[in-house]
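Bumping with the actual sequence this time:
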Amino acid sequence: MTSALYMIGTFVASLLAGAAISIALRPLRAARQAERLARAQRDFHRQREQLEAKFIERAAASGKPRGLRWVDVDFDDDVVYARDRHTRRLKALVAIEVSFEAIEGGGMEEVEAVSNVRAATAEFLHDGTRWHTDGRVYFNLGPSAAVKYLASDLELVAEEHARA
């Protein structure tokens, strides 16, 4: 009987020690995560010009919207950071304004609204070591609205950690 009590006591003590260590390490993990986030944000701002050029190249090559050619893209200065709920990867979302022109024979030549500037959000992805873009754009949504629209897939990175 005493050996059973000894084993139960040892088991409970091990659980308590593990919980205490886990609680003690929580601030260290949070500090490491905050440092990784700050580093990724600094990297984004350092590489932003090249990332924007790559975004335009990829988005324009996508063929979307059909029948239109990308003419100009203006990027906003502000960045909204969000985390993918499934992969835990960081995303940077930037408001953009896009101008198009109709492609001859594309069926949009007679549409008056083609010349209207479109508001959208450009998406940039961090793979854990570097930033890149697939040229993904969310038309008619600002960055915060895109995060809300994609709430099942994205979560906003806390504001106090998002400043670069």
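The tokens above came from a reply further down the thread. The beta strands are 68-75, 80-84, 90-102, 118-126, 131-132, 137-139, 154-156.
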